[in-house]
Amino acid sequence: MKDTTKKNKNQQPFRSEARRRKVEAAKKRAMEKQKQAQQHAGENPEIEKQIDSAMEKIIQETIGEEISKEEAVREAVSAKEEAGKEENENVNQENVKQEEISKEEVSKEEVPVEKEEQEESVLKEEEYVKEEPYSEEPSSEEAVASAIAVEPIPVTAEQIVDSEISDETGNAKKKLKPSMIAGAAAAILVVGYAAGALYYTNHLFAGSKINGMDCANMTEKKADAALKKQVESYEIELDFRNNESRTISGSDIGYQYIGSGDVKDVMKKQNPLLWVSGLFSKKNYNVEIDANFDKTALKAQLDGLDCLQEANMEAPADAQIAFVDNQFVIQDETQGTTIDEGTLLTALEEAVCTSQTKLSVEKTGAYAKPSVTKDDETLIHQKDIWNSCATATITYTFGDEQEVLDGMQIKDWLSYDEEGNYVENKEAVMAHIKEYVLDLATRRNTMGRDRTITSTMTGEPVTVSGGSYGFRIDQSEEAEQIYENIVNHDVVTREPAYASRAAIYGMTGDDIGNTYVEVDLGNQHLWYYKEGTLIMDTDFVSGTYTVSDRRTPSGTYSLMYKQKDQVLRGTRRADGTYEYESPVKYWMPFNGGIGFHDASWRYSFGGSIFMYSGSHGCVNLPSSMASELYENIEAGCPILCFY
């Protein structure tokens, strides 16, 4: 018994080695059957046709955007599962047969082996073999996704495995080969590239634009539809000067899209084999859009724009010479906003025909242009000449008012040759100067003008006409002074040369002020106002009214001077005597030989004495009144005489 036990122990390694060989042989046959089943499945035309059909439909419909990617994946998986089921049935049948063969071979073995241990080992090997076919390649869903997305799918130990080997402990191991991983990735890239090339045979590349519109991955039909939609919302913006713009809508001019086949021409230009370039670069194709529009409606829209109304347009102005700060300068031309509508309409029609969305009116040349610009050589030459001879400026003062004679007027008085150069000609210049001074005197002289005051006696307005009072320019002297200023290029401010002056400046004839003598010849009474205050008033006797050459004339005058102790004489006779001689203490002339004086020989004043017994023309005053007036009045005081 003891020897038997020992013998059995010595035989145990042999029996284990025999069993291992049996199991490996069985496993090899099972794997052979499995490979045959896989090949059988691959050689089955019907299964292969179903898989190819599903894959083609998935690629076309997915990329064509008629079904979602998920539906494509499900189609592929379904087809693969049908093929897998048939394959699994074949494998299972072979495994069952193999199991039966293995059991028969093991049972025939003469070496005693425990049944449970052997069967358990064989079952494990068979289960491992059954699992291998499903882990050797990625699922259908993963393959389709990789073909569409062109992205490498990570390969794991469960997807690509080496044949099983055993270690010293008998445990199974799986080993990944780098070459197999790289091959699988390359296969996926090739499939994705091929799918992309097929897709872009009838699609525009990614990054494609037509007339600025994004047409990426669009078919010809879809891109053409997008262009049509874009045309339906067409409008063109007109940019005017002064940052103004107006918009004309395509709907207002009957704008309609007409397909021209330009999208097809664009697709012909792209090579599907180069579709990957579209992922990294963008390209814009400019194509002509064929469209119809109503030219009459377009003109009506243009005519209706407010900025094209004549009342709203500013005419252009030429560059010109101006006199600024006592020198001649060139002022820039003014462009204005006047538009030639015919020119603009022609440009607008062309822009609409080519589907332009913006039109610069400035670039169309429709704006009217000034004829002389600041760069004109003749204009520049004139400026230089005038600056050399006509830069005098005379500023006349008339009280608070001013009037300026400057180079802009003086330049027209000078003489020039054919080339525009200055030619000295004093006579011609003086003729212009005298004409100017005459005009100045006509406008500024106040001597002899009518003046209106309020009668102290009646409180009513009284108009006083004639007389020698007021400003009067000495025209001869002023002309000489102007010529001298021009020759010396003077810049001066002064009064004109006067032959006579009024008390104050006043452009409406109100040059009297508030100091004056009111002489009411009709009522034979006078009032003396000094700075608005009545100083004195008195009756008087004026010239004999019924004798015309003795009548005191009406009008406005100014006191010439005042003297004491004078002898007033009449007309000198042939014998050397005078018509009369009247000594006076106070003598105040205002109109030639007519003036105020005392008349000690008279005993009464006022009333109607002047009608028949008046003076020779002077205003006779009581001695006391003559003295008072003499003490308060000054030369130049206005004297207003009226009936």
From TrEMBL:
PROSITE patterns: LD_TPASE. Pfam families: PG_binding_4 (PF12229), YkuD (PF03734). The chain crosses the membrane at residues 180-200. Residues 23-35, 69-88, 96-133 have a biased composition (Basic and acidic residues). Residues 1-49, 69-142 are annotated as: Disordered. The active site is at 597 (proton donor/acceptor), 618 (nucleophile). The keyword DNA repair does not apply. Residues 515-642 form the L,D-TPase catalytic domain. Pathway: Cell wall biogenesis; peptidoglycan biosynthesis. Gene3D superfamilies: 3.10.20.800, L,D-transpeptidase catalytic domain-like. InterPro entries: LD-transpeptidase, LD_TPept-like_central_sf, LD_TPept_cat_dom, Transpep_catalytic_dom, YoaR-like_PG-bd. Keywords: Cell shape, Cell wall biogenesis/degradation, Membrane, Peptidoglycan synthesis, Transferase, Transmembrane, Transmembrane helix. This is L,D-transpeptidase family protein. It comes from Blautia stercoris.
